[in-house]
Design a protein that fits this description.
- There is one protein chain.
- The chain has 260 residues and is of the alpha/beta class.
- The chain is 44% helix and 16% strand.
- The chain is built from eleven helices and eight strands.
- It has an eight-stranded mixed β-sheet, with helices on both faces.
- Helix 3 packs across helix 4 and helix 8 runs parallel beside helix 10.
- The chain is globular and about 40 Å long.
- The protein starts with 7 loop residues before the first strand and ends with a strand.
- About 3% of the residues have low confidence.
């Protein structure tokens, strides 16, 4: 039997994975995800969770039938939802004896060398303490991810900052298809991407109703990671237990191979 290989893994979970179509929190899904990540942590892996969902959870708690569209409404929903989301994560991870921590920051902090170094030091110390950092952009003061990215690129940036071994992005589809599977029943899943070409970028679809990312930003995020030597797997978040298989080298979803 091969020796255990410890990995530092960044897992990004999107709004569509965390919520039902009603906008309410998918408690069963969150429970399964936290159990898997806790188990990986107990196995000795170093886990960082980049979580969207603050706006969706906030909107659900407010009883809004649709996601807000105005920037100030999005920011307010995020402020409400972020506390609710962290409360849920803290409660569920604590059931497995795992301590979680919250890191909220903006792209401005990442652009400042001193702030970036402090952030990396904080990540490393939290992991050394045995905590699972939970990351989101500070949506109350920054709107870049709110309007454009749904934390996809943020997760890739975190993977690079923390020198991760793997980035796993959980979404509501099985991976990247060669055409839109909702429009073409013969669309085929692309299992491995050796190089992100214009053809691959063209295959990326638009945003879903409950998130703001879609595959366009996921491809952009994958480019950030693979150009820094970090492989990326985009897979369906419906069955978080498949993360075990991914770490064993099995194939699920779409895997983007590192460039170096």
């Amino acid at each position: 039997m091969a020796d255990f290989e410890k990995k530092r893994v960044v897992v990004k979970v999107g709004t569509s994975t965390l919520t039902h179509k009603t906008g309410k929190t998918n408690i069963a899904r969150v429970a399964k995800l936290t159990s898997v990540l806790s188990d990986l942590h107990n196995m000795g892996h170093e886990v960082i969770l980049v979580s969207s969902g603050a706006v969706g959870v906030g909107a659900g708690k407010l009883g809004l039938s649709e996601k807000p569209t105005k920037t100030k409404e999005l920011q307010a929903a995020a402020a409400i939802g972020q506390g609710e989301l962290m409360f849920l994560y803290d409660k569920m991870f604590s059931e497995f004896g795992v301590i979680v921590s919250q890191l909220l920051f903006t792209t401005q902090e990442l652009e400042d060398e001193t702030s970036r170094k402090h952030l990396v030091d904080t990540f490393n110390q939290l992991i050394e303490f045995g905590s699972i950092p939970i990351v989101n952009e500070n949506d109350s003061v920054s709107v870049d991810e709110l309007l454009n990215g749904d934390n996809d690129c943020l997760s890739a940036t975190v993977a690079v900052l923390t020198n991760a071994d793997l980035l796993i992005m959980l979404t509501d589809t099985d991976g990247l298809y060669d055409s839109n599977p909702k429009e073409n029943e013969n669309a085929k899943l692309i299992e491995v991407v050796e190089k992100i070409t214009p053809e691959i970028e063209n295959a990326a679809g638009g945003a879903g109703k409950r998130g703001t990312g879609g595959f366009t930003t996921k491809i952009k995020a994958a480019k950030i990671a693979v150009s820094n030597g970090i492989p990326v797997v985009i897979m369906n978040g419906e069955k978080p237990t498949r993360i075990y298989k991914i770490l064993e080298g099995k194939s699920y979803g779409t895997k983007f191979l590192p460039e170096r």
